[in-house]
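hey
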């Protein structure tokens, strides 16, 4: 007997009339009459005639192929159990080649690719598996896991919901659905906090999301950008570099890499990365803005440096101020700009403004030593010696050079000197005053504070003026003697040098300076602390 096949069904040849058959060829109709001939003619266009012997041969071939595919699958399962995922992948691929319409083979290969962290390829296999068999629960579940690992939590939720529709009590799918929902929430919070510039919270949210979505480049990039904005440049660069090792053309990673260099004040290198990112993605707005800011910042800073070198301090101040307004996020460059502007303020004889600018620089970058040195000098100029010692000590502890040690010693000496009486201030002269200036100052101050001049004042005023009179005499005693003055200026302890300032008599100094008799002053003491004088 001979039969013919139409689609998946087999029919006796007699049902179609007389046909001329040939092995493995499309049959051709031959002349016949009646309805049977018409039916045969119709079937001839779409059927292949095969003998019983050939049918057995074909069925046996198909069964052999299926057995071969199953054998490959079993070998793959064995390697998978041994965690040899590369070999498992190879055998699952052979199974698919042998039987490309078997959903479970794609599902198994998807599981293997997931273990190899090749989630995008695994996703394709999982999707093919459910296309072949929409009721394949593991296929939907693996598709959801791939979506979640890649950061597409919304698609993952849809897949896990499909699993729950097929198996409502599937506890694993229930947990995976909760995980995907959590990622959606972390993503929402992270985006909102980025707008609020709460970068630490964004990093926290992305870390939590990446626990469920370890292959999501988008979450990694957002985290890296926030790390850069927080000044954690090595951490940010590490994340971006990991992505670039996998995908050298990733524009977001190139942007973050450039951002780190930009914030580390390596502006020329940063611009190169921004340009490369724009080459990969011409519409990358963040890279375009960062590139523009980097070029503008570099130009303003260089113009300010030029003006400073030329002695045009007012212009330098203006240019540094304009540079500071370009990008408040660029911490390291702005720290240098504040320090530079502080130096300009010192040149403009504005020590308190210089202190403020240097303090701003330190607030931005407390590892930057130059503003400590600049501020310490301004503290010294304004006689804030304890603050100066603190800054110089900070610098010396960071860099123990001979120069920094000497600066610290000088500041400590000034601090020690500041704790003594300031004889120059008492006389109202500066430290470079001549001998005549010191004498004139003493004459003026001694007459101003002489106790007899205030004999009619209250007791408290008399005591205060007597104290000042004594200090004026003490100051004159030291500053009018070259040796004593030299020791005092060098910071030596005068009492250690045998100069007990509590033993001198201010009245005797006054008498010795002004003298008595005609044309001068005459003094008579009627008791301790009481003096009488008259102009000659």
């Amino acid at each position: 007997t001979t039969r013919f096949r139409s689609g998946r069904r087999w029919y006796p040849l007699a049902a179609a009339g007389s046909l001329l058959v040939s092995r493995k060829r499309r049959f051709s109709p031959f002349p016949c009459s009646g309805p049977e001939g018409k039916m045969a003619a119709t079937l001839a266009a779409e059927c292949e005639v095969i003998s019983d012997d050939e049918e057995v041969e074909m069925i046996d071939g198909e069964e052999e192929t299926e057995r071969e595919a199953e054998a490959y699958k079993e070998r793959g399962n064995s390697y998978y159990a041994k965690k040899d995922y590369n070999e498992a992948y190879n055998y699952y691929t052979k199974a698919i080649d042998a039987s490309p319409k078997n959903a479970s083979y794609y599902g198994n290969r998807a599981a293997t690719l997931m273990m190899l962290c090749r989630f995008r390829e695994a996703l394709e296999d999982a999707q093919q598996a459910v296309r072949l068999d929409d009721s394949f629960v593991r296929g939907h579940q693996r598709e959801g896991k791939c979506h979640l690992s890649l950061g597409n939590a919304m698609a993952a939720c849809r897949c896990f919901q499909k699993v729950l529709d097929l198996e409502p009590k599937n506890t694993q799918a229930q947990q995976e659905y909760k995980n995907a929902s959590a990622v959606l929430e972390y993503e929402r919070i992270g985006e909102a906090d980025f707008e609020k510039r709460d970068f630490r919270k964004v990093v926290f949210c992305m870390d939590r999301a990446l626990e469920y979505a370890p292959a999501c480049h988008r979450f990694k990039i957002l985290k890296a950008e926030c790390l850069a904005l927080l000044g954690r440049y090595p951490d940010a660069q590490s994340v971006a570099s990991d992505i670039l090792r996998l995908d050298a053309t990733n524009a977001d990673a190139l942007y973050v890499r450039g951002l780190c260099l930009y914030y580390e004040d390596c502006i020329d290198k940063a611009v190169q990365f921004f340009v490369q990112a724009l080459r990969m993605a011409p519409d990358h707005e963040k890279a375009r803005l960062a590139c523009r800011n980097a070029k503008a910042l570099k130009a303003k800073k260089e113009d300010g440096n030029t003006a400073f070198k030329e002695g045009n301090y007012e212009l330098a101040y203006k240019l540094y101020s304009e540079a500071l307004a370009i990008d408040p996020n660029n911490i390291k460059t702005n720290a240098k700009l504040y320090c530079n502007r502080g130096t300009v303020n010192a040149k403009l004889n504005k020590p308190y403004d210089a202190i403020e600018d240097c303090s701003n620089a330190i607030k931005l970058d407390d590892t930057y030593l130059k503003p400590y040195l600049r501020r310490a000098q301004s503290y010294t100029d304004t006689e804030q010696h304890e603050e100066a010692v603190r800054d110089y000590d900070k610098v010396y502890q960071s860099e123990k050079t001979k120069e920094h040690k000497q600066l610290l010693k000088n500041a400590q000496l000034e601090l020690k000197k500041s704790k003594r009486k300031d004889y120059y201030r008492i006389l109202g002269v500066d430290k470079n005053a001549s001998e005549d200036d010191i004498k004139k100052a003493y004459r003026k101050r001694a007459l101003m504070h002489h106790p007899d001049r205030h004999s009619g004042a209250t007791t408290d005023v008399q005591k205060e003026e007597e104290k000042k009179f004594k200090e004026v005499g003490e100051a004159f005693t030291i500053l009018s003697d070259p040796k004593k003055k030299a020791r005092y200026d060098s910071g030596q302890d005068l009492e250690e040098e045998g100069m007990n300032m509590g033993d001198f008599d201010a009245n005797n100094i006054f008498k010795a300076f002004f003298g008595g008799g005609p044309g001068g002053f005459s003094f008579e003491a009627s008791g301790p602390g009481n003096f009488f004088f008259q102009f000659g």
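Residues 345 and 508 are 48 Å apart (CA to CA). The chain is about 70% helix and 5% strand.
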